Amino acid sequence: MNRLSRRSVLRASLGLAAAGALARPFIANAEAKTASVWWTQGFVPEEDASFRNMVAEYEKASGNKIDYSLIPFGPLMQKIVSAVTTGDVPDVMSHDAGSQNVIPQNAYHDKLVDLTDVVETQKSQYMPTAYEGAQYYNSVTKKRGFYMAPYKLNATPFHIWSSLVEKAGYKLADAPQKWDAFWDFFKPMQKKLRDQGMRGVYSLGLQLTTVGPNDGNVLFHHFLMANGGSGIITKDGQPHLDDPQVKEAVIKTLTYLTTAYKDGYIPPGALSWNDADDNNAFHAKQFVIDLDGTISTEVALIHDKAQYDDIVTLGMPLDNAGKPMPEQILVEGAFVPKGAKNVEVAKDFLKYVIRPEVTDAYLKAGLGRWLPTMPSLVKKDPFWLDPKDPHVKAYTEEGLVNPTVAAFSVYNPGYAEANSQQIWGVAHADVIQHGMTPQAAAESALGKIKTILAKYPVVQS
Amino acid sequence: MDGAHVLKTTEAFVPRTVSLPRRRLRAWRGGLQGSEFTWAVAFTVPYIALFLAFVAYPVAYGLWLGHKPSLYAELFADPIYQRTVVNTVLYVGIGVNLKMFGALLLSGFFMRRGWWVKGLLLIYVLPWAVPALPSFISIHWMLNGQWGLLNNLMWDVFGIDGPGWIETSRWLALGSVIVSHIWKWMPFWTVILLAGRMAVPQELYEAAEMDGATGFRRFVHVTFPLLANLYLICTLLSTIFTLGDFNSVYFVSGGGPALSTHVLATLGIRDAFDIARPDLGVAAVMSSLPLMIPLVILLMRKLRTTEVRL
Questions:
Q1: For A91, which of A97, A307, A346, B170 could close a Cys bridge (C-beta 3.0–4.6 Å)?
Q2: Quick one: which of A273, A290, A299, A258 has its CA closest to A213?
Q3: Which residues of A touch B (CB under 8 A)?
Q4: What ipTM was estimated for this complex?
Q5: What is the pTM (predicted TM-score) of this model?
């Protein structure tokens, strides 16, 4: 073996540097056709397999390469926040809760690429709420734009154990149609079931939680709308926190939810439930009914037919004034951060992803947990409204066939931060743990939201 | 060998004809010449690069992220942060002291002779040996008020409904976190103090016994004075570790019920990633520096060779 000398080390280093310089155009050429993608890992293995298949088909058709990572929900959000903060970003990111957090705030701060040219390729296909729900306000351009390529949405259905309802001696068909009365219908079942030896059972799985990302906020917003408070943020992005009708709806909502908790109809742990806790509690038959986004509750039991068929999935009843309630849906999609190295391939890939037939195949593989954003698909593909599967059908009708509205955070990015801070969950805790009145907790929560929104003025040109 | 000594040795071999700047250069190079110095640099550069990339840069970046005074104003005005500071003080203050005092006492017990004592020690160190996350997640499940092992046992044995340990009361939840932390880490410090006790010369105990000091008096007058420095250093180290402890709180109580048991380490992560405000998260963690820096300085002073003695 030759002795290493200073000269030999220098020679070798120079040689490596020269080889790197010569190889660089080839590497750059390969990079020009490659997009890096971070995608949320699927709920079932079939969903990931379908994503891989979608990528393979795209690569074959385009000649481009997709360098993807499928990352679980929690860690992916941490990676996205870190990437956007440091500027070391991939070309495409998609997170199941992106619309409630990172997309509105980063669109506001002009950190995302406008995807209008991507979304416009399918403009005629999108349902109006999904089309609107993919637009966010940019404080630099002072207007709303497409900062997300929407390819899926979720609604929030009721999930009910029919066997528990029957065991308690009730019939679901007898449930009243008005919002509060509908919930009240289930309360007496708790005593009836406990009297039959089900010691730990509760009536209502209401997520009064202070833990994110979405469950607590979604629950509160449904109650708020049922109590006439849907005008808290209007489509022009303006908050109406001092509106007496909004304030009254907030107080009514806090009163109903915290009273149900204090009366013992809700599992005590609900104050800190995370995204999976309510599903686990439902599967453990800790309560009779809950209201929770997507049909992941049902899909998790798809291989246990008896249990799967025992659950009833229901859409919205009437609001407390007796009027039909539109469903507030969450539209999700992929986004491209500024600083992405290959925006061209990223956009080309997203144009492929949002094609109706591509998105349909992908979402079906996820067993219908997420709905497509295009109504034409449910007309063409019998999967979505097949009466043999009562869950997917009821869910599709709720989120895609019946009237829908977009989330408040779509219109005001500050409200997205309020959601992230779980202001409504903290208000529940203020009443339950700190002895505040619902009126005082409402004032406190609305005050906090006002402070947050002041950081995100929306002045549309 | 310290730097001053190296300098003197080098100077002793320098011929008088060598100029002062050249002598200084040689001294700066630690007496290494020619290719020796080149190789020394070549071997050091990767370490320096790693240190800059993975220690200096992240710390500097963190300081830059959390440098705005408005972030601290926002934090101090937040009731959740105020509660978090109280929790952190209680968690560290109670957790560390109970753990260290328990470890001191138990290390005495494990000094006893007998095969069964060694067997007990083996079982006792298991919580420390098993991975932290599954342990804390198991505790979280065991403490569940509705279907957890503890409350089911209480129901089956005594016929009473147990409380929601981590679900309804801040103090029960914080207590559960502290107990979990002690359960996990007391074995480690017990073994360290056991090693310290083993280093105490047996003759001292024999002499003390001849003077009539046995039992508690032997502990007060012989064992504790000899272990005092080790105990203090261990306590300082444990305080620094516990201030940055994320796992015990995050996986046992999750900061609940209703955000009432967060400590600075977990609140920083919540602010950074759940609220997507990394600057606020860094500021929350940075706010522990006024406590952390004096502790590290104190520890460094105690770690001087003259101070560490049995």
A1: A346
A2: A273
A3: 5-6, 9, 77-78, 81-82, 85-86, 101-102, 105, 199-200, 210-213, 267-269, 271-272, 274, 281, 284, 286, 417, 420-422, 425-426, 428-429, 432-433
A4: 0.79
A5: 0.84
